[in-house]
Write a structure and sequence with these properties.
heterodimer; A: mainly beta; 50% strand; B: mainly beta; seven-stranded mixed beta sheet; four-stranded antiparallel beta sheet
């Protein structure tokens, strides 16, 4: 199965700053089938990006995804307090679908 | 709007079974699949399997094949996941999530999660 690694483990940022999150796959992700989710404690995870760069319904354009093959990036510009949480990447190009370990974003 | 509402937390003894429900609202239930994903304490997200809500077909991760049953009730627009022979390592939050029915495991709406605690 494809193993995903994410970096950094934790990001400490201030409101208004930009967050850049990385996701690396152990092998090429077929058709760039890579998604990003935001997860806040006690809430359901939320789909942000699919197909590496397509925003899901209702996701503001502050969130953008890029990359291909084995290296992918989620960028969150103009951070607000509501953007705190853990961000997971997930590949669905190969079975089973697998998730990265997550990057925690702490907005101070 | 689309909502997935899961059953409440459960506490089970080792060797027992647990059945978690996922009631859906706001879309045509049979046009999608329902996936199940779990997160053990301090661990990442792990995909368990899916059920096609239209035809009842299922697919499982190798880690759960044979110990997990997925079912659905189309009249109640509800999916169910049953785990048998529970062990302490099954303590986790279990999520249901909606996905398209054309074979790609994207999870566009999720339930709130159900905590299952396995303890003697």
């Amino acid at each position: 199965e494809i193993v995903l690694t994410q970096s950094p483990g934790t990001l400490f940022l201030s409101p208004g700053e930009r967050a850049t999150l990385s996701c690396r796959a152990s092998q090429s992700v077929s058709s760039n089938y890579l998604a990003w989710y935001q997860h806040k404690p006690g809430q359901a995870p939320r789909l942000l990006i699919y197909g590496a760069s397509n925003r899901a319904t209702g996701i503001p354009d502050r969130f953008s995804g890029s990359g291909s093959g084995t290296d992918f990036t989620l960028t969150v510009s103009r951070l607000g307090p509501e953007d705190s949480g853990v961000y997971y990447c997930q590949q669905y190009g190969d079975s089973p679908p697998t998730f990265g370990p997550g990057t925690k974003v702490d907005i101070k | 709007q689309v909502q997935l509402v899961q059953s409440r937390a459960e506490v089970k003894k080792p060797g027992a079974s647990v059945k978690v429900s996922c009631k859906t609202y706001g879309y045509t239930f049979t046009n999608y699949v329902i996936h199940w994903v779990r997160q053990a304490p301090g661990q990442g997200l792990e995909w368990m399997g899916w059920i096609n809500a239209g035809n009842g077909g299922t697919k499982f991760s190798r880690n759960f094949q044979g110990r997990v049953t997925l079912t659905r009730d189309t009249s109640a627009t509800t999916a169910y996941m049953e785990v048998r022979s529970l062990r302490s390592e099954d303590t986790a939050v279990y999520y249901c999530a909606r996905g398209p029915n054309f074979g790609v495991a994207i999870f566009d709406y999720w339930g709130q999660g159900t905590l299952v605690t396995v303890s003697s």
